[in-house]
Design a protein that fits this description.
- 2 copies of one chain form a homodimer.
- Chain A has 5 helices and 10 strands, in the order βαββββαββαββαβα.
- By secondary structure, chain A is α/β, with parallel strands linked by helices.
- At the A-B interface, α1, β2, α2 and α5 of A face α1, β2, α2 and α5 of B.
Chain lengths: 200, 200
């Protein structure tokens, strides 16, 4: 199983946002939508062996966490707008109340108020990796088949989040000499995992 | 210089399309918008050493070709919608008339009625690569620093297009064991080029 956790520090936590303005008023929800696409899409299908968590930490009611399970997903298209519509639909089902357990929104997509620590706990046991520029070159590391990769949005995790992650003993990995968008990082991880774990 | 040519077989060739429906009525223009983003965006900037050509072959007036020059680009954002708006803006400046030469639309973006052969000629002299599943594993190939990579949209080039490309002696490259979206292919090529040609 490949798991990705993407932390959206400013991503809106209510359904009250405009699908035509994802990058600004929705708190860079465009980044998270592209992370969904990079996590699941193959040329002619969906990666079934992937679970993606989006942690939304923007206003008005953080945290909200979304879980996408590849083996159950339906109605997912690769464009940002339709993915953001699925996120909005999930947010509309998780109003002000505390919903700590996962609440199913559409097939394969659930929402809760779990925070980073809860999500990391849910990913145990697996090998944890934190994707950050200062890490080891990932080309030199054999990635575990049962892995959890943690990423920020347009910035890395903050100090407090890194402290929480440290309890899970992550290997810190760098993907190359330049600083990349997070959806591009997911694509690179998939390609390396495909090469290591899938027969040609 | 890194050049990418992406052939959009159904991509709309007039400005008369809806930015909220890129994947359907605009003939998978969402794929081309994501190719733009994958070609140019770093975490905190634009790749200056990249030129991207989009060849639009859908109705009503093919071919239309767009050229994006990294060193001149302004007003580019990573989300699909705003990129599609730049494409629409360019299309609105290239009406029914024959405009074989490049016509500047916004900084770094030009439009013409050049076809695949004309675009390939413009990329000479460089080493040509055709990204296709049946090719050599690209991990085993040292990519030239002055390269042109040719890709389809959600399908490969058709037989006629492949014949035209053959005149430029492309090396056919495969990127991994699974069939990937074209924007993901661009990300993988960039990472390999970064590793081979940029000092840490």
């Amino acid at each position: 199983m490949r798991r990705f956790i993407v932390v959206g520090h400013r991503a809106v936590t209510s359904a009250d946002f405009n699908l035509s303005d994802l990058s600004s008023s929705a708190g860079r929800l465009d980044i998270l939508a592209r992370a969904v696409s990079a996590s699941f899409f193959l040329s002619h299908g969906i990666r079934k062996d992937v679970v993606l968590y989006l942690l939304l930490l923007g206003e008005p009611s953080p945290p909200k966490s979304l879980r996408f399970v590849g083996s159950d997903l339906k109605y997912l298209n690769p464009d940002e707008r339709s993915t953001a519509a699925l996120i909005r639909n999930a947010l509309s089902k998780c109003g002000g109340e505390e919903k700590v357990e996962w609440l199913r929104s559409t097939p394969g997509i659930s929402i809760s108020t779990k925070n980073l620590k809860c999500i990391l706990e849910e990913c145990k046991p697996s090998t944890f990796y934190y994707l950050k520029e200062s890490g080891y070159d990932f080309k030199e590391v054999n990635l575990s088949q049962d892995s959890t990769f943690v990423l920020g949005d347009d910035s890395d995790l903050n100090e407090e989040e890194e402290k929480i992650l440290d309890f899970f003993n992550p290997t810190v990995l760098s993907l190359g000499p330049l600083s990349l968008h997070k959806e591009h990082c997911i694509t690179l991880v998939h390609n390396k995992m495909d090469r290591e774990h899938i027969q040609h």
